[in-house]
Amino acid sequence: MRKKIAAGNWKMNLNAEQAQGLVSEVMGKFTSEINNQVEVIFGPSALFLHQIQHLAKDHAQFHVAAQNIHQAPKGAYTGDIAASMVASLGCSHVIIGHSERREYYGESNALLAQKLDIALENGLQPIYCLGERLDDREGDNTFAVVSSQLAEACFHLSAEQFGQLVIAYEPVWAIGTGKTASPEQAQEVHAYLRSLIADQYGAEIADNTSILYGGSVKPGNANELFACPDIDGGLVGGASLKSDDFCAIIAALG
Ligand code: PGA
Fold it and tell me: How many CB atoms lie within 10 A of CB 69?
């Protein structure tokens, strides 16, 4: 069953007290009135996963995602976090392949394939991010780029494994810039991604895959983005740090 999802990617923002305050405010507003087809995911710093998971754990529609994991099961990787550690807290999701990790840490599709494997082995649901840079779009390479990001990292998975994934299309030129892809631009890529998934895994899996849009989602544009037939919600950065904005985005899921 395809879900509507609002996922907040807090990146390297908020301290412990602010993190707790934000989650309490959002949950306080939505616990009773949220549509049960909707999932809300908080993506705090790894330091606060335990604390935020503790707040969310008794509320079926609220989930917690790590922003990254290491590809190895364990070992001498100072400062890194294993999928099993995230899972041991009861967290359900992990963001994999965000463009900031691709760009600043050189994460390749091949490495991300390993991260998807270890996440799934540990029962975590990956939110796999992909998207073209501005030069890709201007050079008419958007479809080629997103297609290789999807195929090279994901298409070794079995249909059952792929069925666990959430996909997030985030054009790099729209992240944190205030420039949102138009609903038409986003819908076009979402429909293309769904067609690639259908070719690889069949129509049923494609139909059931939630594909989120990310890149300057705000209360003012969420409604028109989420109204597109292949956009199943948002991966939200800046606007997920303000409870009123994030609540308005959740409400826009319907
Ligand atoms: P933004 O970030 O909403 O601040 O553009 C989105 C993201 O990076 O996931």
Answer: 25
Q: Is residue 214 in contact with ligand 1, taking CB distance under 6 Å? A: yes
Beta bridge pairs of residue 129: 168
**pLDDT digits 0-9 by tens, 121-168:** 999 999 999 999 999 999 999 999 999 999 999 999 999 999 999 999
> What is the pTM assigned to this prediction?
0.97
CA of residue 167 to ligand 1 center, whole Å: 14
Taking CA atoms only, the protein residue closest to ligand 1 atom 2 is 237
Number of the ligand 1 atom closest to the C-alpha atom of 217: 3
